[in-house]
Amino acid sequence: MKLPRKRRTLVIILLCFFAVCLSQCLVGWPNLMPGRVKLPRKELPDSIESNTERHPSGHFNGHTEQSIVERFGQPSTQWAGQYGHPELKVRLIFPDAVTFVYETPKGSLYLSFCQQDGQRVCFSSDWLPTGGFF
Question: Which domain of life is it from (predicted)?
Answer without folding.
Answer: Bacteria
